[in-house]
Specification:
The complex is a heterodimer of chains A (about 300) and B (about 290). Chain A is of the alpha/beta class and about 300 residues long. Helix content of chain A is about 35%, strand content about 25%. Chain A is built from 10 helices and 12 strands. In chain A, helix 3 crosses helix 4 and helix 4 crosses helix 5. Chain A is elongated, with a radius of gyration of 23 Å. By secondary structure, chain B is an all-alpha fold. Chain B has one domain. Chain B contains 11 helices and no strands. Classes of the chains: A alpha/beta (about 300), B mainly alpha (about 290). Chains A and B meet through helix 2 and helix 3 of A and helix 2 and helix 5 of B.
């Protein structure tokens, strides 16, 4: 295993998953460096969950190659090697089961006992903000608390890589901010994180890199700022009030030149001048709309 | 330089040394699963009421309605005694077959199984945990029935060690046979809400024709009785009667004897067949 110490956490080439009636994942390539937070961003039904489940060894693939922590999840097996591999990953899925009659501390301690070198359950409970609830039955927790408990049981085994499948769906803004802080803390501890989300602000706030997925394909990949600028040159929109009082709008790749010309034309101040560049959200919506238009 | 790569690797608190530490043993994990299953079971009051207390309640009802008079002339066996032994068998089937059939279907549907399978827990530990939980809850349920039977219905606890030995193997084989049937059955229903009716209906029908709800077994029409004899419950119930009823009661059995050999064979066949079906059909994920 030592030869894998420096290698990437995840390497995916040409991954595809088809069901009888549709193509859920349609040929994606993905590399995740160790210590990275990668956000898989896309609308519902884009193939995010399918991708994560294949990487976590919970689903088989139709085509392509997948390597997660140096092993092929489809062949991890049930024996010692497979168990050792599973001990190195943590999963927060959308539907993780329940143990309503156990207390928070009992469940986290129970899960810790599966792992060779677990974190201290009480530290994990504190990290996920559940200390006040540790002796309460799980059935009494709120939805957000259950979600944090899902994270607690995913990280108590001290995994190197965590898959988080839409972890904040249904959270209020306050709970989401708290959750983001938790993810950043895990990342600071050196954990590699693959996060799926359909919230652009979540991807932008947390991820070192974003892969935008739609209809089973990546339509863009890069850091948040790369997506803003580098993916392809974006025009700025310059808007001002014309001499007749009508609002004029012009898209241009050279806004400074346009404004200089306008300044000359108006002999100084340009009335009602605004210059806007597309936000990440505009770009995201454009990417998804463009992809939709192709179908 | 490349061969020194491991030493030069960046330190990572999350991953450092994970590979080096040995996995917890399967035995230890099985023990932890068993303790956790028991905790979950006995804290769920509805389940405890339904699975553990209901057979004792049925005993009081049935024995009160049908009286504690002799089951047949000169048999020296009361209806209450027959019901106690029969309901011990029915209760064991409830704790193993019904409970596992319903809860495993639920655990599959709500994602518990999928999640467990993605952890390093050995899969055998899951089943070991269920075995521990079923055996302990079946013993508690049996003890409760015996307490009621001894207190009110002339049941006498056996004094011979050989009778307790019979109890032990009938109990273990019967529990195992019903448990594997329940685990196999858990994969049948398309939705978890269908599991309850399907499993309960199966056990209710069998309870009527296996000497649990209607006693003595001889009073049931032979075709129904013979159909019932294809399933473990008939044999589990007869085995329990052989332990808790006086020897003179054997002539109330359809065969006129306790048939220990056949009982062991039928139960073992169900265990073997059930295990084959379970290993081939058990799914860790919802459909």
């Amino acid at each position: 295993m030592l030869q894998n110490m420096n290698s990437k956490a995840v390497v995916v080439r040409g991954l595809a998953k088809s069901y009888q009636d549709h193509q859920a994942v349609d040929g994606i390539d993905l590399d995740i460096e160790r210590g990275e937070i990668l956000a898989l961003l896309g609308p519902n039904g884009a193939g995010k969950t399918t991708t994560v489940e294949i990487l976590a060894g919970q689903k088989t693939r139709t085509k392509g190659s997948v390597e997660v922590l140096g092993a092929d999840p489809a062949h991890a097996g049930r024996g010692k090697q497979g168990r050792a591999w599973r001990a190195r990953i943590g999963i927060v899925s959308q539907n993780a089961g329940a143990a309503p009659e156990l207390t928070v501390a009992e469940l986290v301690t129970h899960v810790a006992s599966f792992y060779p070198r677990p974190r201290d359950p009480h530290e994990v409970i504190a990290l996920t903000g559940l200390t006040e609830k540790k002796d309460k039955r799980i059935r009494t927790l709120s939805g957000g608390q259950v979600r944090r408990l899902d994270v607690a049981r995913a990280v108590v085994g001290r995994p190197e890589l965590i898959f988080l499948d839409e972890p904040t769906t249904g959270f209020d803004p306050e709970a989401r901010r708290q959750f983001w802080a938790l993810i950043r803390q895990l990342s600071a501890d050196g954990t590699t994180i693959l996060l799926t989300t359909h919230y652009l602000d979540e991807a932008a706030a947390l991820a070192t890199r974003i892969a935008v997925i739609d209809r089973g394909r990546f339509v863009a990949q890069g850091t948040p700022s790369e997506l803003r600028s580098d993916s392809h040159p974006r025009n700025a929109t310059v808007s001002w009030e014309g001499a007749d009082g009508q609002r004029q709008t012009k898209e241009t790749s050279t806004p400074t030149r346009l404004i200089t010309d306008l300044a000359t034309e108006f002999h100084g101040e340009v009335p009602g001048l605004t210059v806007t560049r597309p936000t990440l959200e505009d770009i995201y919506l454009e990417l998804i709309a463009a992809e939709g238009g192709k179908q | 330089m490349t061969h020194q790569a491991p030493a030069a690797a960046p330190t990572m608190p999350a991953s450092k040394g994970t590979n080096a530490a040995p996995l917890p043993s399967a035995w230890r994990t099985a023990a932890v699963r068993g303790a956790t299953e028991l905790r979950m079971f006995f804290r769920d009051q509805q389940t405890v009421g339904f699975i553990v207390a209901m057979p004792a309640m049925l005993l009081v009802l049935l024995a009160s309605i049908f009286g504690s008079h002799d089951a047949a002339q000169d048999s020296g066996v009361t209806i209450g005694q027959l019901y106690t032994a029969g309901l011990i068998a029915g209760g064991i089937a409830g704790t193993s077959f019904t409970y596992l059939g319903i809860t495993i279907a639920q655990e599959r549907a709500n994602g518990t199984l999928k999640w467990l399978a993605a952890t390093p827990m050995p899969r055998t530990a899951y089943f070991a945990g269920k075995v521990v939980q079923v055996i302990v809850s079946a013993l508690v349920e049996t003890a409760l029935l015996l307490a009621v039977g001894v207190a009110f219905y002339h049941v006498h606890l056996p004094s011979q060690p050989s009778q307790w030995l019979t109890f032990a193997w009938v109990f273990l084989l019967g529990t195992a046979a019903c448990a594997v049937a329940g685990i196999a059955m858990s994969s049948l229903p398309k939705t978890p809400s269908a599991a309850g009716p399907l499993v309960s209906l199966t056990l209710t029908v069998l309870s009527f024709i296996s000497g649990v709800y209607v006693v003595p077994l001889k009073t049931i029409p032979a075709p129904l009785r013979d159909f019932g004899a294809l399933f473990p419950l008939t044999w589990l119930a007869q085995g329990m009667r052989s332990v808790f009823l006086p020897g003179s009661a054997a002539h109330l059995e359809p065969a006129g004897s306790w048939q220990h050999g056949v009982t062991a064979l039928v139960l073992l066949a169900w265990i073997a067949g059930g295990l084959v079906v379970c290993t081939r059909t058990f799914r860790w994920q919802p459909r």
